[in-house]
Design goal:
The protein is an alpha+beta fold and about 220 residues long. The protein has helices spanning about 1-20, 30-40, 60-70, 135-145, 150-160, 170-180, 185-190, 200-205, 210-220; strands at about 25-30, 50, 75-80, 85-90, 100-105, 110-120, 120-130.
């Protein structure tokens, strides 16, 4: 667990660094790390994902980010790919690596808002632009249906518990429910062991995603 805490502290210092070096103004924070650092998602997320808030010259952005990161961190991998910019860094040699992926997509208008990123393990707060919870829920539904990963189901249940309305079609509801029914107890014991907070592991091992299944059963769907 200390390894995860140290990694989260590193994530927060990188967010602060991105803000101080004027990169955050062009980016939208998303996925599990955003939910963890901005909304206290009870699982750790090892990677950081961003999308663009406004149009940028991607090549120039990559070069500037790479130059700046290389001055202050050990850059172990870098790629200016077709669909995303990928950077892998660590504070120093022999330390855990942090993967940062910046997707070369302009986020839809109205899909983001300003948020405060924070961690109980570090007395720092960082102003970021992150996806709205409504947008996150929509993405998590699609991710669960497409990939069937347990972390997407966990995040989706977290959003439902926070009161975000399930806005989905009947087809999506059936496919999501099928994914949930496919998880076995062994999957919970293995897949949630290394990232979910210890006090919740037994709960999910015993009860699975009962709350999410109930919400899906009672959801008002459209077609």
């Amino acid at each position: 667990m200390q390894r995860l805490i140290d990694h989260e502290v590193f994530q927060m210092t990188i967010l602060e660094w991105l803000g101080s070096n004027r990169f955050l103004g062009s980016l939208i924070f998303g996925k599990g790390a955003m939910l963890r650092l901005c909304h206290e998602l009870p699982r750790y997320s090892p990677d950081m994902d961003f999308w663009f808030f406004k149009q940028k010259d991607y090549g120039q952005f990559f070069n500037q980010l790479n130059d700046a990161l290389s001055r202050d961190h050990d850059v172990t991998y870098k790629r200016n790919g077709y669909s995303s910019i990928l950077m892998e860094i660590r504070r120093e040699k022999r330390m855990p690596k942090l993967k940062i992926e910046i997707h070369k997509t302009i986020a839809p208008i109205g899909s983001s808002e300003e948020k405060i990123a924070f961690s109980t393990h570090l007395p720092v707060q960082v102003l970021v632009r992150g996806f709205t919870l409504k947008h996150m829920l929509r993405n998590k539904v699609l991710a669960l249906i497409d990939h069937g990963q347990m972390q997407d189901a966990f995040d989706l249940e977290f959003l439902v518990r926070k009161g975000v309305a399930l806005d989905l079609t009947e087809t999506q509801r059936r496919k999501a429910m099928k994914r949930l029914k496919g998880f076995r107890q062994k999957d919970f014991e293995v897949n949630l062991r290394n990232t979910v907070l210890p006090e919740l592991r037994e709960q999910y091992t015993q009860h699975g995603f009962d709350h999410l299944e109930e919400a899906l059963c009672s959801a008002q769907c459209t077609e």
